[in-house]
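Self-study notes.
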Amino acid sequence: MSARLLTAENISFGYATDLVLRAVTLTLRGGDRVALIGPNGSGKTTLLRILCGILAPRAGSVAWESRDVRAFSRREIAQRIALVPQEMNLPYAFTAHEVVALGRTPHARALAGESRADRDAITRALELTEMQTLAPRIFNELSGGERQRVALALALAQEPALLLLDEPTVHLDIKHQIEMLELVRALNRERGLTVLAAMHDLNLAALYFDQIILLNAGEIVARGAPRDALTVETIRAIFGAAVAIEPHPTAPQAPHVILLPRA
């Protein structure tokens, strides 16, 4: 069994008096590929922000390899964990290449300038996301899907051990949804990159992730392999939707969720 990378224990968080997360406990091990699923407002984005240290929990703790993340500097966390948000808007006219280069900031040495390793990491990230030709373009002038791919390239340039994705396919067409998740799976399998992705699409989650965590009203209500976590009863209870589930025609380990119209 792989070593623990990140452990969250009894995490609770709230804004004002309302709790968004309630006693959430999870462990991510090296090489895990996990989808975090839940309805809008269930706490998925909040949990990702807590795991990478952007938010501090009201109760509970987060540890990286048994060391409390609060003991790390922001630079040290960014050398280990990268977060790709749903939206990334910049106030200045950075090119896509300049945005991706920001991913090397945690590794920069004072007054040393850009190193060969930095240039190689930036080039590799642009190639992996197929953004080389758009690198000179102004980031804010790109389409939503193109900006999402630049955001992923920025995260890959960080060369993290853990990649957190917040709705990574939300702005992408079908072709680019598949390409992005194929890339994430390949990086997981070939380089051991650990991935936790907040997802809405149940079928994409079942196809591309080995484990599913279902979050509802700030609590984990189910977890396990896709075929175990995604059941008719659980989906109805969490989403209030009627579905049927059949084996995927080419990936029998992945349940295929079929929405049923209301009579």
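Second protein, same conventions, sequence then structure:
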Amino acid sequence: MRRSIAIILLMLSFNISGCLGEEEDSEGLILATTTSMRDSGLLDVLLSSFKEEYDIEIGVVAVGTGAALKLGENRDADMLIVHAPEKEIQFIEQGYGNSRTTFAWNRFVLLGPSELDGPTNVSEAFEHIQDECIISRGDGSGTHIKEQEIWRSTTISLIEDSSGTHPSSESYYSIGQGMGAALNMANELRCWVLSDMGTWLSMSPQLDLVANIWEDELTLNQYSIIQLENEYQSQTLLFEEYLMSSKGEAIIAEYTINGQQMFNPGQPNQEPSSNA
């Protein structure tokens, strides 16, 4: 049970929650993934279909990307699904992972109390709202990493502290919690928040927030599977092959929430360069 205990301790240290089923002990195959991939519902469909075809059970630990990468670094997971490309490439280059393959993507969306009229891209949008109420996950997740990347792309004077990179504003709230909590808080306080598309679509019926979407490189949200050195190598590689197969791609492309397609299979044209 050493690995299960290590996972729980890491989750506590990141102040996050995950789902660790009974089958996910030190003897089981564990996938560490992002809360956004779990909460979208797509992962359950993929894992169920994969199990039906190959009779292989995959346990899931859902955390932020930063925590998932740490689990991979400590060998407390057997493969990863994450969505912070630069961090993933660094993870591979440092020798913690064997390979990285992008299998699905969508976009990040800026949610708020109104539609923004004027900004032609997400960087301009962040400049527009810099002095307004903003909710940040502040948890080292892929969404938090992307938010900081967007702030750095602006002309705004930024500060660096325990909450990461952000503008100096009394209306900027870093909550250190997951996407669902951030959306609920933004909804209650009428604030702005950066969200992944999947969580937004799944929660939108309960929220009074407006989605502002730009199709530029900064809003790309890519989900990749990272292979790790472990005793389950044949099974983890088989799962990757399944995600990239025509059947896996069809499941990804056909998965919808409220009638809207959530993910695109494969990888976008703007995929970052990597030798991994």
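Instructor comment on the second fold: Residues 42-54 form the longest helix (13 residues).
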